[in-house]
Amino acid sequence: MSVFSLTKTRFKEGVWEGLLVAKTKEAPAPDIVVTLNDQTVPGVVLADTGQAGRWAVEVPVPKDAIGDGVQTFLILDAHSDIVLDSFTLIAGEVLGDDIRAEVELLRAELDMLKRAFRRHCLETM
Predict the structure, then answer these.
(1) H or E element in which residue 75 lies
(2) Which of 35, 85, 97, 100 meets the CB 3.0–4.6 Å disulfide criterion with 6?
(3) What's the CATH code of the domain at 84?
(4) How far apart, in Å, are the Cα atoms of 121 and each of 42, 53, 61, 103, 110?
């Protein structure tokens, strides 16, 4: 069990952001490591928020991580090697199997059928 908890605050413009909070205000600054496919992600920023036991975390998504497939980033407490949080990017062909993509396809087909049915009703009157 880690002495820190990490909560996502937003993910915007290729940067995942979160708030790291220590269980005790006297806790020393953490050492955060982010990995993707067992490789360390460069450019991770841990900034002091001005409040004891709280730090802002910024994880830039590397350009080479953006592409077809599923990419899972692990945010670890380097001292205890415990996963504090994770986030996943899904893109490309993999989405064909995703239920959300299937629902969007069904909605588009339903809209097409509704237009065709309405046109048919108008023409047969």
Answers:
(1) strand 69-77
(2) 85
(3) 2.60.40.1130
(4) 61, 67, 52, 27, 16
Reported pTM: 0.73
Q: How far is CA 61 from CA 11, 36, 80, 116, 122, in A?
A: 10, 10, 24, 44, 52
- Report DSSP letters for 3-46, one per residue: SEEEEEEEEETTEEEEEEEESSTTPPPP-EEEEETTEEPTT-EE
Scanning the structure block, which residue is given the tokens 């069904």?
106
pLDDT one-digit tens code per residue, 17-55? 999 999 888 788 889 999 998 899 999 999 999 998 999
Q: Which domain holds residue 79?
A: 4-92
Whether 54 is in a domain gets the answer yes
Quick: pLDDT tens for 71-103: 999 999 988 888 999 999 988 766 556 667 677
